[in-house]
Design goal:
The longest helix has 16 residues. A four-stranded mixed beta sheet has the order 3-1-2-8, covered by helices on one side. Strands 4-6-5-7 form a four-stranded mixed beta sheet. The chain has about 180 residues and is α+β, with helices and mostly antiparallel strands.
Length: about 180
């Protein structure tokens, strides 16, 4: 089962630029495999940032195909990318849309970052729209640290390469079994 991005709206009291307290409802994105896990994860993440009470007002599946953070960028932009293909039977051009969440400091930088992300795409594409997203922050499952993911991948590969030893009942001998752990 693959993970999905969930958009979670959180309502809490925050201090604005003038020092006044106000109630804000802001969207955050978490990587999870279910609504229940998304709720658990956003509670954990927000508890680290918000000292007072907060309330989760909505959780919905985000419609992002990919999330692309960039260093030295502080805002999130939603890039609409239209993949262009040619239907040989009908002789017509077909477009299928996907949405990327890309970081940038302004729309131009978000466009440049979207082009950079798409540079390895085999087919043709267009970028018909880019708009600033209200998403405040993104919380990926592995915290964006490749080290953890690589360690897990190596560990699973190691487990798969080693034979499993099963003790033969009442003899005390071990039999090598083909299955991996």
């Amino acid at each position: 089962m693959s993970a999905t991005w969930y958009e979670c709206k959180v309502k809490y009291r925050k201090v604005d630029e003038t020092g006044a307290q106000k109630i804000a409802t802001e969207p955050y994105l978490v990587d999870a495999i279910s609504y229940t896990e998304a709720e658990k994860r956003i509670n954990e993440e927000m508890a680290a940032y918000v000292s007072e009470e907060f309330k989760i007002t909505n959780i919905k599946v985000g419609n992002y195909a990919e999330i692309h953070p960039f260093e030295n960028a502080d805002r999130w932009f939603k890039s609409k990318v239209s993949l262009v293909s040619f239907d040989e039977e009908s002789g017509k051009e077909r477009k299928s849309n996907m949405y990327l969440l890309v970081q940038g400091n302004d729309v131009k930088e978000a466009y440049d970052n979207t082009v950079q992300v798409m540079k390895n795409t085999m087919g043709d594409y267009t970028i018909p729209a880019i708009s600033e997203s209200p998403i405040m922050d993104v919380f990926p499952y592995f915290s964006g640290e490749e080290g953890e993911a690589e360690q897990l991948e190596r560990f699973n590969a190691l487990k798969a390469s080693r034979p499993v030893l099963e003790e033969i009942e009442d003899t005390g001998e071990f039999l090598e079994v083909e299955e991996a752990i």
